[in-house]
Amino acid sequence: FEERAGRRVRLIKEAELWEASFVPFGMNPEAQVLSVKSDIRLFEKALRERMGLSQKEAAAVASLGYTALRRDGGSEATAIVDELKEISTLFTHHFGASQ
Fold first, then answer.
1. Which residues partner with 3 through β-bridges?
2. Has residue 61 got a pLDDT over 60?
């Protein structure tokens, strides 16, 4: 706990986050996202492990997006890009999230 503006508040300094979802109207109107850590290596690892991309393909997607993979990866990469786009479209349609 910590004293802030004359009130005793709980401060979470570190947490292991398994899932997160940002919504327009949260349950606690005072809740804030103060920072988001990003590690491109973790993203690349997920692309390799979950999508079966090579190290080179994962690095291309992580740094340059779908276009680089399609441009440099040939027909196999095109199939992967199409699958990623389909997943994105399904997610957008199902959850109403914008891309």
1. 8
2. yes
